[in-house]
Structures are given as C-alpha cells and as structure tokens.
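job 3f2a | input accepted
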Amino acid sequence: FHVGQTHIHDIKSITTAIAILSQIIAHVSGGQYGGVTLQRIDERLEPYMKMSYEKHLKVAVEEGIQDVEGYAWRRLEKEVYDACQGLEYEINTLTNSRAEVPFITISIGLGTSKFAQMFQMQYLKNRQHGFDGKTPVFPKLVFITKKGLNLYPNDPQYYIFKEAIKTSSMRLYPDYQSYENCVKATGSFKTSMGCRSYLSSQNLDTESDGGFNQGVCSINLVRCAIMSHGNEQQFYKNLDKALDLSYEALILRHKMLCGVKAKQNPILFCEGALARLEPEETIDKLLTKDHSSISIGYVGLHNCMVALYGQSYYESKELMQKGLNIVQYMRDYCDKKKEETNIGFSLYSTPAETLATKFCRSDVKDFGIINGVNDNGYYENSFHYPSDTDVSPFDKIDFECQYPYIANGGHIQYVEFGDMTKNLMALETVVRYAMEKTPYFGVNVRNDVCLECGYHGLMENLDECNNDYRCPNCGNEDKTKMSIVVRLCGYISSISERPSVDGKMSEINNRVTHIGERK
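job 3f2a | predicted structure (519 res):
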C-alpha cells in the first residue's frame, strides 16, 4: 500500500510495523472526522512479532548464547514494550488537519498465542507508566472480555484481565467490551468506532474491518416532552417530527457522499483503510447498510421522562417500560428506514459532550426553568441514569443495561469510582458484573496528580461550574501543575489542560461516586 507517495512493503519487525502504523493513523485521521479504531491489534501484529522473534533467535545462535529461546523471548518482550511506548508517543505528538490529536481507539484481549498475550501485557504495562506519571488521553484502550478465556479466575488468560483492571485503576482506560454481549447487541463482534459507535448490519467478524459511519443527527428528547405538556400521544407526534427531520438531514449528507471518487481520498478508499477501489470508482457501494452506518442519536431520556411523566425510568417497572418504549420507537424507525433505503440507519446513544449543554440552554431560553428537567444546565447523555443521584454500582448497571441492546448503533455504560488503586478487587467485581450484563463498560476512576508536590489522589474542586481545583496536600491551585483526567462521555479528557463547556463541567463535578473514596 501507499502512504502519501511512499510504497510500503516487506515489513519485517514489530518495531517497523508499529512505526508505519503511526503514519497510517496520521493519514487516515486527517482524511476523515471522528474516531479511528484499530481492532484486535494484538492478533493483527502477531506476524511481525514472530519475525522479530526469529531475528533474536538468529542473533542468539550467532553469539553463542546458551539459552537461545530464553534470550529471544526476553529481547522480544523489550522490543514490544518499546514499540508500544513509541506508538503512544507518536499518537500524542500528532495533530490532524483540525489541530487535534487523532482520536484513536485500540482493542486487545482476544489473542491467545504467546505473542498476542505478550503484546497485551506490554501495552498495559506501558499505559500504567504513562507520560512521566500523567495519564495519556489517547489512544483510547479497550479490553475485550470473553467467557472461558479471560473473565473468570479459572480462565487461562485471567491474569491479563487482572492487569487490565490494575491499569484502569491508574489510567481510566481500558474500557471493557463483552464479546458475547456485543454479538447479542449488534449481530457480530466488532470493536466500537471511536468512543461508542457500532456497525449493526454485519454478520461476520471480518466484515467490520473497513466499516465506517456516514454521520449522526441527534434528537432533543426533552424538547419533545416539554412541548407535549404531559400528553404521551402528543409526545410521540413530536418525536415523529424530530425523527423525520433527522432522516432528511442524514439523507442530505448521504447524497453529498454519493458520486465521490475513490481518488479523492486515496488512503481511505484506494489503499485499504476502508476499501481498495480503483481511483476512478465512486464510493457509492460502500454507502449501503452492509458497509457503513448512518445514525439517529438522542439526548436526555431521563430529563425527557421527568418532563413527560414527572418521574424517570428507574423509579418503577411501569416507567422503566415506558423508557424502553421510547427508545424502541426510535430503533423501529431506524430499522424501517434501513429496509426502505438499503442505507445503514441505526440508533445511536449520543455522547453529547457539548450538545447536552446546548439543548438545555435552548430549552431554558424557550420554556424557562423547569425543576428536575432543565435546572442543572445540562441534560443526561442518552439513556444514562442521572449523574447527581446516588445509587449502588450494581443497581446502576441493572437500570441501564436493557438500553444498549436497543440502541445498536452506539452505547456505553459506566460507573463513577473514586480512587481504586488500593481496592482492585472491588473494581474487578464491578467490571465483571457489567460484562455479564452489558456490551460495553467504562471505568470512571479518579487518580489526580499534583505535579508540584507529587501527590496522587483527588484534587479539591473549588467551584462546580468552573475548572478550579486545589491540591489537598500542598495547596497548589496552578492547573498547569496538575493532571486531572476524567471521562467526558465515551472518552476521557485532561480537564486541567482543556476544560469542557460549563454545562459539562457542572455535570462532571455533580457526579455521585458510586464506589470508592472521592472528595
């Protein structure tokens, strides 16, 4: 394949493979928007690890080393660790055409060979080390769990799952993806695109390679509810209008992509990132439900239900069913449009990093403050339990876990933890429980760092609406001398360096800790 004007071939080591991979990432990220996922990278890089291993064997023989295999494995382990470190630094020092670090997701966990297991362990250990003790924001790391492989103490690769838990306690990532539940929710196994987007049409694992999303248009469920004045029938009429408008917007986007020639973006469409088409071919055949998705998203189910029914979905079995009915109604609409058009319409649980604030502000402007609905300055993401309401981690997982199977185009659940570095068994127990219930789970731990005195723990929040913090150990309030990394929605961000909008900052600071110590 070509990267730019250079023909790449004959790669013969893991070091070279990962160096080239970072260049592919840079070019692919610059040629599109949103996240890029390298799925099951531990398995995909096995051939290059084997080549490096054979080189180390040859050196051992030439040097007359007695323990030839032992030497080769030790050298390979060091090479893999260094290569993973190189990839982490490469990605975090790149900027794409929008002056952003490429949004990269990497998944590991299903590889069973000695090479794949080595890669999994070395990447996790590398992430634990961080950048001089600071937590890298990218790549987003996903660990895939599978029953009989790594999820339970008697599984052969359980030791890697435990290493992943340790890594999460220190660096938030990895997130966790259940092999079995992903198949149940989306039809086959695939790693999410970016922070939570899924292809839902594929029937074979291999078909998700090269898949992509054409775009998302999200619905303000809360506005639909406010305008219905408590009338359920009117709510669904309002929702119909919002769905039809979203559909029109997405069809416009789809038509703009029709007729585009592969040569207009060769790294994506000619060289294999998404396809290997001839330069003069159009990409039209990739815009069908078998190759790509296009998504209708939604924001604020909790706030919507309070506006419509006076209570949220978690407060009774009847309300839970009404919440599921709303989400299923949108899913049915997407399925209908997918069959009518042969375009991959899917229902997407929108992350709403800024949209949750924008929608709320718009509704306050038009309808005024409504207690319990828009009085926090933000709406909850998609189907998520209200972040400022106390609940056990297990109950939170149970309340939410039916929704991902409806929103097959994108979803994530998470639990808010405090500092879990000294309570790994509790963290592991919650993650395993989630993997038995839901396809995709994020770990929201807090392990802040004061770069002034070296304190590891939790910074004191001085103002819930702003980004002002203080070190409880030395009193440092200089944000340039802190590392505070939190989950914004599906991905994490260093809010000490780049705060989000004020509504999202309020939501972050209002989050109730479900387990673990937090100030």
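job 3f2a | The chain has 16 helices and 18 strands.
job 3f2a | closed
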